[in-house]
Specification:
By secondary structure, the chain is mainly alpha-helical. The protein has 6 helices and no strands.
Length: 145
């Protein structure tokens, strides 16, 4: 083994990869993981028990679960490709929350039952609208590190 192989990347001037799941990223991983389980559980139970009652709402909750799961995976995986993918997913999530939130406020009768993103996530303490903003801030910071 040569000296350059033993020398840490920081000492040789190489840029070390930023770990997305450390520091505040760990909190994001936790929240996204919890929301993955919550949205998936909710949508699965609702689709099994009473899909015909509100199919749009239940499918949107399942889509939210998939987005949350993918962001969780990307944050845990780390790396530049995962960071960019998670950033795009957070933007899509925010767009979904804003569209569904506005739709449910403007036309409440459009949904026979609430989704995770209904009323901008009011049923989840507005975390669904706060989470993608926080995620995008963290992911943009990670790019600069």
């Amino acid at each position: 083994m040569t000296d350059t192989e033993r020398t840490p990347a920081a000492a040789t001037g190489e840029k070390q990869p930023f770990d997305l799941g450390t520091g505040p990223g760990r909190v994001l991983v936790w929240f996204y993981g919890v929301f993955t389980v919550a949205a998936a559980s909710r949508s699965i139970v609702q689709m099994i028990l009473d899909f015909g009652r509100a199919p749009l709402a239940y499918v949107l909750s399942a889509v939210a679960a998939l987005v949350y799961g993918f962001i969780t995976y990307s944050l845990v995986r780390g790396g530049e490709t995962a960071r960019r993918t998670a950033l795009v997913c957070c933007a899509a999530e925010l767009l979904g929350v804003l569209v569904v939130g506005t739709w449910t406020m403007a036309e409440p009768s459009a949904f026979a039952d609430a989704t995770v993103w209904s009323d901008f996530g009011m049923g989840y303490l507005f975390i669904p609208v706060i989470l993608p903003i926080t995620g995008m801030m963290w992911l943009r910071r990670a790019r600069k590190a």
